[in-house]
Design goal:
single chain; about 220 residues; Rossmann fold; 8-stranded mixed beta sheet; two-stranded antiparallel ribbon; 6 helices; about 25% helix
Length: about 220
């Protein structure tokens, strides 16, 4: 029997690297494919569609029977809206962090070390910019190493880029139009919104590649 540790002695000069398992991406109905074993970042302002995009990904995973987790930094997660978007709440672990970004990072670390989740969402969307910029970069490197051999898709929601080079995919979310129903100033009702999701990373993404998504109220 030849042990793998002895192979470099048998094959001088061989550069043996571990083979990373290839898992199919988590594809959102909005047309965005979140890679598994990697960190993705959804960047957008409030009402940009960033939460809608996150919910479509969680809905896909939980409907397929995968257990997912959401790290709710700002205590803004709305289970009713998530359920309406198709998220199976019985398959979702919800952790509230009471506006403590450091606690959110520690919780995320524990979740990734535990393994077994289809997706882990880290919602930093309502965290102040000054707090975001104080998150140590080593957390993202640690998360990237922890998730690489797994099938977990890590999805970070944030108002500005924070994961940076540790993100395999970065998507900018923006709302381009709002539609109304009814006539008159007093009887008009919000009917829906047109949302655009544009990949900003990887750098070689084709320019103008935008996923359009219409959200009905």
């Amino acid at each position: 029997m030849v042990r793998s540790a002895s192979l470099p002695n048998i094959l001088p000069g061989a550069n043996l690297q571990p083979v990373r398992p290839a898992f199919p991406p988590l594809v959102s109905p909005a047309g965005i494919a979140f890679p598994r074993g990697r960190i993705s970042e959804i960047i957008g302002n409030p009402s940009s569609g960033r939460t809608t995009l996150l919910f479509t990904a969680l809905a896909t995973a939980t409907r397929d029977g995968e257990v997912c987790a959401i790290v709710d930094t700002g205590d803004m997660f709305d289970p009713v809206s998530a359920s309406a978007a198709g998220v199976v709440l019985s398959k979702l672990l919800w952790i509230r962090c009471h506006n403590d970004a450091e606690h959110a990072m520690r919780v995320t670390d524990l979740l990734l070390q535990a393994n077994g989740f289809g997706a882990v969402a880290v919602d930093l969307g309502d965290t102040g910019v000054n707090l975001l910029r104080r998150i140590p970069l080593h957390y993202w490197y640690r998360f990237r190493r922890a998730v690489e051999p797994t099938r977990t898709a890590v999805i970070v929601v944030t108002p500005e880029p924070v994961v940076r080079q540790c993100a395999t995919l970065a998507v900018e979310a923006r709302r381009t139009a709002v539609t109304w129903s009814g006539t008159g100033d007093c009887s008009r009702l919000l009917d829906g919104a047109d949302l655009h999701f544009e990949p900003r990373r990887p750098p070689d993404t084709a320019p103008g590649r935008v996923s359009a998504f219409c959200k009905r109220a």
